Amino acid sequence: MAYSEKVMEHFANPRNVGELPDANGVGEVGNPKCGDIMRMYIRVEDNVIRDVSFKTFGCGAAIATSSMATELIKGKTIDEALQLTNRAVMEALDGLPPVKVHCSVLAEQAIKAAVSDYYRRLGIDPVPIVGELHDCEEESCACGGH
Prior knowledge:
This protein has helices at residues 5-12, 60-73, 78-82, 86-92, 101-121, 127-130, and strands at 25-30, 37-45, 48-57. The chain is α+β, with helices and mostly antiparallel strands. Residues 2-121 form the NIF system FeS cluster assembly NifU N-terminal domain.
């Protein structure tokens, strides 16, 4: 399985890794079939994601997609972050092997989970804004394991 140079770079030198102590939104998603778990931390001020970090337990592609996703939403408004798709994450990494596409889905879902938590902490129902959250399940993604 061949990975792009960008995937290898984000795996070897992930950006924004670790916990964010002053996060006001934290989301965790996972894939029960292959065991990837992503936790995304965001600090929102004035509707802008001022800081973001992640902790991921998973394969190299899971780490790379988490890293790239944080880079793509840092400094963006919440609305802009919610428009980030797994396809955009894959394109920013110059592609992923088909059996690793689920990692980009998890990255997209982790952002949505963190934003949902942010809204819940404000006492706002996140579902009308973010939509329903779902983990990457066996039936809905091409998880080939690691």
